[in-house]
Amino acid sequence: MNLASPIEDVKGIGPKTSEILNHAGIFTLRDLIYHLPRDYQNFQQAESIKDLKPGQVTIKARVDSITTSRRRRGLTLTEATLRDQTGAVRAIWFNQPYRAKQLATDKEYYFSGKLEFSYGRYQLMNPSAELGKDIEADPSRSLQSIYPARGTIKSHDFVKYIKTLENTIALTPDLIPDFPGRADALMDVHFPETVEQAKQGRAYLATEELFSLLLASKLNREENKRMRTAPIKHDLEQFKAMLKKLPFPLTGAQKRAIWEIMQDMEREIPMNRLLQGDVGSGKTMVAALSAFIAAKAGFQAALMAPTEVLATQHAEGLSELFGNEMKIALLTGSTKHKNELKKHIAAGEVDLVVGTHALITDDTVFKNLGLAIIDEQHRFGVAQRQKLLAKAHTLPHLLSMTATPIPRSLQLTIFGDLSVSVLDELPAGRQAITTKIVSPNSTKQMWDAIEPELQNHHQVYYICKKIDDDGKSELASVKRECQHLAKLFPNYHVDLLHGKMKAAEKDEIMKRFAAGQIDILVSTTVVEVGVNVPNATVMVIKDADQYGLSQLHQLRGRVGRGQDASYCYLVNSSSEAPSRRLREIERSQDGFHLAEVDLKLRGPGEIYGALQHGALDLRIASVTDTKLVHQASKLVDNFLKKGYDLLEYKELAASVRKYQRLTTLN
Ligand code: ADP
Ligand code: MG
Predict the structure, then answer these.
(1) How close is the Cα of 529 to the center of ligand 2, in Å?
(2) Which CATH superfamily does the domain covering 434-588 fall into?
(3) Cα–ligand 2 centroid distance for 461 (angstroms)
């Protein structure tokens, strides 16, 4: 057996299991061996019951009492009280009635499981149990791997399969020249004797992964430098004349960004620029001016947005300002006479096509696409971006836009050929959004404060977590709250919006809201992304503690877009003290500051998780692991300096190729 052997070769894996594993992307022994534990049951360091904190815990305790009862639908519930010298804790098991027989009240056990706060108390959920003296007699059992489940294949199945591969793992050859130790690292991760060992092994494997990513990015950079595209020249006088026609002067940051874009587009090397700016910083205007320059130089531009609502709004807003200067069209799933429009696009009769994913269907053909723009780029995957770029004859210039800051270190190491323009300045005249945390019992006062806004013909967003009441949680739903508010405000027009509505219906609602025909819009987070209705001055977020910091910031950014004072109310779902998250958002309106706080509170993994998953597919490493990134980058330099030939390293080459596909432009 070698790493490339199919998993069917493993003892105990039959056709059925292999099908499930294949489905989860596990085909070869290598894939299986790289299915790493997500955690360990650590019987070495039992904690005192009185010091337990929520999360994965291990205790050494006796069973005070244990009973099993039947519940609805054949469910059984086994409950026990576990005790050590410092205190007692409740444990429960679902559908494991044998626990009552297995656990004797006169013996000591190690229990390992998740401590959760539910139904008003802390309890240990479905803990595993090992007899104390068994563990103490056999130290190799004291640290046990917990693997992520895949379909019906559970952690203990993976334990079994990987155990049979112990010899193969121990003989794994190194992946990267001059970086010895892969076999040991894999052994340490799967069968560690100490927590520290497992950690070190993981760090080795993470470095390996980062090596592939960094080498891929370097190779791409070399290739991109050789890429050529049609330069887009600008006419400065014409551009200045256009600026004069705009209803407002550009901010300094917008001017800087557009200047950088002009310089980039003039070159033969395709632009790859990220426009990063907080909500409301005016990214759309920069995009529109770039498209204007392209159009005047005889090129087409495409602007892709993640939702119909947003695409529609962009198309309408830009038509108003630029309609006399260039031909703008909207292309979404619900566009009527699509085929006719596509003919116009193919004939080059449209200068700027604004759209959703409908832009990248095979039958959308451009005559000469010179500039591709992607709004809210983190919402799109690599494949979608590449499809848009493929609409041009040669690689077009690319402008991506996002409100999510990407750390500088990441930009340089991973997206090496990416240039960044930052909009760090809001348009003049914006007022701060007064933000208040509201306890669920003081919503009456909140509405009293909001009513004058309604009387002034301003509009209100009211955000709920759920669409329907599903009986599973207490969280407010769009439908129920809409009914409730309609009763509360009979003189105002209350309506609702959510993601399960048909695109045409959503558009209709959004149009009516934008036109001021709806006073209170009860909605899910579909309004989160980019929507712009300057007359809306109040944002109410129900169950605000259920959202992440950046999401709250994005939602709040829907108001405060005009000249009027705006308000954001964060309604806590309980009357307990508000969380740090809510207090931060109440205090600050600086997206970059909030992103930093978020980074501290949640850790980099979760925030850049989406980025890594979607764009980079890192499984072990995190790009924010600066120490490992640095080490990997030194290994890459060594690899290139010594002139190793990638083709001679098959496994490595395959991994590098995967990352090249993920980080390339075309
Ligand atoms: P975002 O960066 O979040 O995408 P938008 O592009 O939607 O922001 O712009 C938000 C609002 O600011 C829009 O109403 C837009 O017309 C307005 N705006 C953009 N640039 C300026 C400016 N320089 N001065 C005043 N208002 C501006
Ligand atoms: Mg936007």
Answers:
(1) 7
(2) P-loop containing nucleotide triphosphate hydrolases (3.40.50.300)
(3) 18
